[in-house]
Input
Amino acid sequence: MISSAAIPLLLFLIPLVSLRVLSLLPTRRSQPRSRLSHTPTRLLVVLGSGGHTAEMFSLLHNLDTLKYTHRSYVVSSGDAFSALKAKEFERGLYDTARARASAGRKKQRTSADPGEAQVMTKEEVYGSYDIEIVPRARKIYQSLLTTPISSLQCLFACFSILMSTPSASEVKLGYPDLIVSNGPATAVIVVFASFVLRFFGLPGTSDKMRTIYVESWARVRKLSLSGKILLRLVDRFLVQWERLAEELGGQAEYIGVLVSH
Output
């Protein structure tokens, strides 16, 4: 039973919490501040096993390392496939950055203009990355009785990742600027963790941890469970089929097929 003394406190807190949550929910008018060119930026990518990971790297194939100078990949424990694909993807980004730096140096040597800007080093062009492992929120065939415990373990690990500066980065980056996901269950907990941090208004969270969710290409008529949960929580919700966008009645953005098969 709730004591009579606690009732006024609840009547005060419930509207206050509700207003705070509503203030954090994304709106069409919610736009991030523009950033200066070459400003250090941290991108956090949530990977899932198998198809989710393959689709994600298809989405990111033209990633600009000059814009997203540090990439953090969140992988569930035991998902060696996603961790391997992240390393392969980064090797491709490095090769591209190295070619860009080489072309820039060649251009500088042949330039007759003594005022030509200095070419950036390959480290400045490529940036850095790290792979973060979190406990699985729920394993296959795991009992529903123990799922809350494993989900909490995953949540605390996500808090740690969001709040800490990656060791691979040479500059203090703080919270991720952008979180991108395409549907693995871990994404729900990562987005929830970012929402909690912004709810309490922790220093450095202002205009950080913007979220983009891309529904899987396989979802033509109905959302995945992750999509249903995150539909109203993320800043941009993208679908790849016009029929699905129509079903959602304007709650999602249809921008065509984003993945290549």
User: Anything to note?
Assistant: DSSP finds eight helices and seven strands in the chain. The beta strands are 42-46, 70-76, 128-134, 178-181, 210-214, 236-239, 253-254. Residues 132 and 229 are 23 Å apart (CA to CA). The helical segments are 6-24, 51-59, 80-110, 122-126, 147-163, 185-199, 225-230, 242-247.
